[in-house]
Amino acid sequence: MIEACVLYGVPFSLYTGKARAYLIKQRIPYRELVSATEQYFNVVLPAVHRWRIPTIEFPDGTFIQDGTIIVEHFDKQPGVESAVPPTPKQKVVSLLFDLIGMEGLLRPAMHYRWNFPDDNDGYLQQSFATLAPPGTEDPSAVAKNGMERMRAAAVAFGVVPETFAVVEELFEELLELLDKHFLQVPYLLGGKPSLGDFGLIAPFYGHLSRDPYPSSMMKKRAPRVFRWTERMNRTESDMGEFPEQKEAFLEGDDIPDTLKAVLKKIGEDLVPESKAAAECINQWLADNNPAAGDPVERGVGFGEFELRGTKVTALAQPWRFFLLARVQTAFNELDDTQRQEVRDLMKDLGLAPLLTLTIDRQIKRHDHLEVWG
Ligand SMILES: N[C@@H](CCC(=O)N[C@@H](CS)C(=O)NCC(=O)O)C(=O)O
Predict the structure, then answer these.
(1) Residue nearest to atom 10 of ligand 1 (CA)
(2) Which atom of ligand 1 is closest in space to residue 68's alpha carbon?
(3) Chain segment 171-180, per-residue pLDDT in tens
């Protein structure tokens, strides 16, 4: 039995959505608190060095900051059934969806939050005011500052008026394909959530299913995707629409055609952006040659790529390659026959470049921070 921990996070946070869904689905006892508490500022922050959510505080006074590391920690505990599928294709696809959720859908998540102010801003103001530290005289001023910062972040991720049309076009197509998939199965890979579901829920819960504009759009255009976002936040399997479905991953290492279509669509954006980011980060590494142990910044310049004829300029985030390296490690650990099967699948989906794309230095974690290896 795992003793209850505290999850510092807020409902509207993208990354918290992954850790929360994992804790709920795995029935790990936890209590969620906003990070605007005396305890967070006086005890947690000095230990983890930066204000970030999600952060876990264990009863013994230790911490984990970062949703991916949180999930990895719990997923290895005795008595917890791992969310990583055991079979080759499902394992790689699951890790890929984790990357997609953490990095690949930031543009739509930010666009639909920040560029529909008439629908969203009142709601976001009350949400961001909950981040005000204890004793703040004017929480609405804290909200305003936080919102301005995040609106600027949306621009850094490549959401500018010139790209609105292509971001919307791709997202609408993705919603339609996901809706078709969730007509067939309740979770990405069958009757229980995999690591990929936990990654994908991050943009889909905190932003896209809750903020008024995209929430209404999702309910109208892709009601089954909305149902999956509900399902991912309930302890039971919540798949009454699928009375015959076993609580298990699909048999035979199957990747259904409906999911292949989703991955192909996402690849249109994920592959060129990852290539552009790798090029930019490698140039930065050559120019700056950070010492081993130096902190890794969230972004180190901007990658440029084309999406359906539109130029996109987006922050090159090294963390993307920490996540991609996990996909590649899982692939490299397979035997020759399995590797060939996965390679064929990835080729078919237009995602093969992701199996070999790397940056020139490793990213490690030390004392809660990302550092250059
Ligand atoms: N890689 C981290 C990213 C966490 C993150 O950026 N969280 C946002 C809130 S959704 C945050 O704390 N932003 C504050 C900041 O970066 O200053 C994870 O996966 O947990």
Answers:
(1) 13
(2) 19
(3) 999 999 999 9
Domains and CATH numbers, the chain: 5-75 (3.40.30.10)
Contact 7, 19 (CB under 8 A): yes
C-alpha of residue 124 to centroid of ligand 1, in Å: 17
Both tokens of 342, joined, read 């996965």
The DSSP bridge pattern shows strands 30-33 and 5-8 to be: parallel
Q: With contact defined as beta carbons under 8 Å apart, do 193 and 152 qualify? A: no
pLDDT tens track for 221-250: 999 999 999 999 999 999 999 999 999 999
With bands split at pLDDT 50, 70 and 90, how would you rate the model's confidence at 1?
A: low
Mean pLDDT calculated for residue range 14-23: 98
Is the model's pTM score more than 0.90? yes
Pocket test for ligand 1, best of 49, 53, 68 (most atoms within 8 A of CB): 53
Alpha helix (H) residue ranges in the chain:
16-25, 38-39, 45-48, 67-75, 88-99, 106-114, 117-129, 139-156, 161-184, 195-202, 212-221, 223-231, 257-288, 319-332, 336-348
Ligand 1 center to 275 CA (angstroms): 23
Q: Which residues line ligand 1 (CB under 6 A)?
A: 13-15, 51-54, 66-68, 102, 319
Per the listing, tokens 């929360």 go with 20
The answer to whether 120 touches 213, Cβ cutoff 8 Å, is yes
52, 100, 128: residue to mutate for ligand 1 pocket, most atoms within 8 A of CB:
52
